[in-house]
User: Fold this.
Amino acid sequence: MRNIWTIAKREYKLYFISPIAWVVAFIIFLVLGYFFYSYILYAANQQLTGNGSGYVPDMQSILSPLITIMLFASPAFTMRTLADEQRMGTMEVMLTAPVRDWELVVGKWLGAFLFYITILALTWIYPLVMNQMVKPGIDQGLLLSQYLGLFLLFGAFAAIGVMVSSFFSNQIAAFFTTLGVLLILWLLSFPVQASGGVGGDLLSYLDMQGHLYNTFMQGIVELKDVIYYISITILALFIGSMSVETRRWR
Amino acid sequence: MIRVSGLTKDYGSRRAIDNLNFDAERGEILGFLGPNGAGKTTTMRILTGYMPPTSGKAEIGGFDVVDQSLEVRRLVGYLPETVPLYPEMTVFEYLKYMADLRHLPKPNDKVEAVLEKVHMEERAFGYIDKLSKGMRQRVGVAQALLHQPQVLILDEPTIGLDPAQIIEVRNLIREVGRERTVLLSTHILSEAQQVCNRVLIINKGKIVAEDSPEHLQTRISGANHVTLRIRGDAADLLEDVRNVPGVISVTRQGDDVLEFETAAGIDARPEIARQVVQNGFDLLELHAVNLSLEDIFLQLTRDEPGALNQAESTATEQVEEA
Assistant:
């Protein structure tokens, strides 16, 4: 456990040293800020003119764009985790230090995940502001459910990124492969709608978007969704550890 | 401390090391000498638990490098060929990180102590990014020494250092080697000669010679090379010298210079001198040439492995061709 924490701490600090993290974080908050402002303005206008549909802004209008950005940003955050160690030759010292292979992989994941949690924590500014503007305040149960969903989703994003990064010594290859895997899992909802039967059931179980929008985003917390994201995370970290281990045999 | 038996590693169809056997004890500095691609790095990577062997067994401090990898890694300090550094960290941060991974008590003190050893105190808070190659190498050495390991494995530790730093690192290795076990690879022969108690010459994955540097030298150059300079044309003397007992081969190096090789244990110089004078030549110079470790190394690694005796004759042929 201690090794995981040591590695995670270094990874986490590294995000604040590397320019990528700052650039992506800047874009995230620029876009979210824009959306937030627009929705608030839209709602305010309707209130003033009094002829609207009674639109009340909720957090999904912020969290949906956040997920979309993270779908593309997460591969950029995780691409270097293990690929760069391999490229720089530092993998040799990590694999000959008294650290288990899975501790290295989990440490890398935890570092990335902590960074995502930091981004997620910073977005709390929006519900706090929104809570002041909407009477009688926003639905806090819904808010917690949405954030729990995102928390689990980002954990899976980070795990998949670290797993793919372990396959490559090239960051760009890791980036595009991670992006591909995430997009396939995310966009499975379209074939799910089109297909039925056992195949359709399987696809809908794997569908990353369905497990979020059908429940967490509606304020429903179901065990099967929690298990889905946790098992994706564990599976990815397991494959990542295997990949680091097989690297020794190559 | 280190026990290796029948160690073999294949990369696909290429055999990188082939049935290596050697031991190293505490207080011994063992040098691994060989041309590039001989299998030095592969052997070291197996010993440090970076990769498993295809077959054979290796033990460090009684622990098997495959089955008890973590115990072995705790005992070993390792400097890989490409110095493993994170450019975005400072020297201190990096060493502290490595100390934390090894669960060292009082990591800050340990880092300061090792920085002092490699004379990097004043650069402790500089970014690794900005360090010269020699300094990076020293940080790499510091990383390997950090936990005062029982076994130190160094892959080309002095590469990229300036002469003063090379001497420092060699002294450091000698100091560590007094009470611990050091295995270092190098292709610089004088280094092996100066630092190591024992040298393994490895070529194409096989050990071709194993001895102390001094023994190795006498063993191979047991046959003496002697250079003779006379006044006049040496060609006329060629036949006479060749017939002197104990002379194995004679070559003419220049108009007035002959070089010849004598069998081990026989000093043919007095008889040769007599021949020179009896044939009416003036003897200007007669001296024995010692084969340097460089020559020995070249001989051993150019040939098929295991052919110590052949090495001599081949070298002579090459002299004759020249």
